[in-house]
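Re: your question from the hallway

Yes, I did run it. Sequences:
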Amino acid sequence: ETGVTQSPTHLIKTRGQQVTLRCSSQSGHNTVSWYQQALGQGPQFIFQYYREEENGRGNFPPRFSGLQFPNYSSELNVNALELDDSALYLCASSPRQDVETQYFGPGTRLLVL
Amino acid sequence: GENVEQHPSTLSVQEGDSAVIKCTYSDSASNYFPWYKQELGKRPQLIIDIRSNVGEKKDQRIAVTLNKTAKHFSLHITETQPEDSAVYFCAARGGSNYKLTFGKGTLLTVNP
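Structure:
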């Protein structure tokens, strides 16, 4: 087990609503990245947080936003949910001494109806 | 931006045979190439990685090779076992942040 945890495990929302997903990184890990994994696809990079600041962003609209807290945990917020936002949302944390290596959490499966 | 192509999309082998999955990448600046195994309903699990200053890396039955000139890297699994059945993803990291770009995955089935 990598020690990265996410909550909730599953979530059902309706179009237009807002959602907050949470991630606790493994002890000693100070970088958190978020990915969206659609069914049958590889994970797609949303953004990364380091020292509480966004450190790179993928091709996602501004309604996808995030936070990192002093304890290195992180949140992903999605506003104005669309049907296509239905996916598995994964966070990955990286240790201080090896920031390239990313260890994934179990994910939150979001269904937008 | 980076683009990673992965082949084949499905691979079926008999237990004990070898399996090879190949990936190509587009960004010549990419320098880190991990492989992840994802079982149904589970998290992607890092199984091996290679950096651009190394041509090959091995860990028991798993090996990865990297050809920087051709911009491709491969995963080799020897003596496959039924528990190797899963979806395998390759990824590449390039540029100034630590974004990973993933391939679309290979569903490996090892038949007993």
